[in-house]
């Protein structure tokens, strides 16, 4: 596993003039959130069919924790609220 760089790439781009947060949000984050939401909609539908409620909840919690780690390691800190806050991505309220 690669060593985390605490979102260094996402923080560095605006600092070196490679675009402001608008580019990050519109050209990357918006699509990341929509695709992540779609992925978890499929996963959640399968879990509901095959797992008990406690198993479903444990899988959802595990995924939220992993998404938080990904945000902290690879994305801009502003993404954390949008991807992990309140389980929005798992609940499918993210839109493109």
Given helix and strand content, the structural type is mainly alpha
Total helix count?
5
- Low-pLDDT stretches are 87-96
User: Can you summarize the main beta sheet?
Assistant: none
Radius of gyration: 15 Å
Average pLDDT score: 76
Compute the separation of the termini in Å: 31 Å
Give the % helix.
over 70%
Backbone shape: elongated
How is this structure best described in words?
With 96 residues, the chain is mainly α. It has one domain (8-91). The protein has helices spanning 8-15, 21-50, 53-74, 78-84, 88-91. Helix 3 packs antiparallel against helix 4. It is elongated, with a radius of gyration of 15 Å. The model is unreliable at 87-96 (pLDDT under 50).
Task: Report a brief summary of the structure.
The protein is mostly helical and 96 residues long. The chain contains five helices and no strands.
